[in-house]
Write a structure and sequence with these properties.
Layout: E1 10-22, E2 27-33, E3 43-49, E4 60-70, E5 73-83
């Protein structure tokens, strides 16, 4: 309810990648938080990475990132991302 409480905090979330877009300057996607095991979707957060990464849509990942605000909307600046192995999580 108060996104300013989370500004600049770091989070480590598991989920799935959706709506993947890759340009020469950044990678963006919607992160389906908590949906890494295809059971419970806890929320959808836009994520951007300013580094190269091997990412496949609809694949379970863990993202470490910093919460940033655009108005009252939260997005995540990815710091690290790695693909989860089947059965982990």
């Amino acid at each position: 309810s108060d996104p300013y409480l989370y500004r600049r905090c770091f989070v480590d979330w598991k989920g799935m990648v959706s709506n993947l877009k890759i340009t020469s300057k950044q990678i963006t996607f919607d992160f389906l938080v908590g949906y890494h095991n295809n059971q419970v979707l806890q929320g959808i957060v836009p994520v951007y990475l300013d580094f190269a990464a091997d990412i496949r849509a609809a694949t379970p990942f863990e993202v470490l990132g910093q919460v940033q605000l655009e108005g009252k909307h939260i997005r995540l600046k990815g710091i690290s991302i790695h693909q989860l192995m089947p059965g982990s999580g």
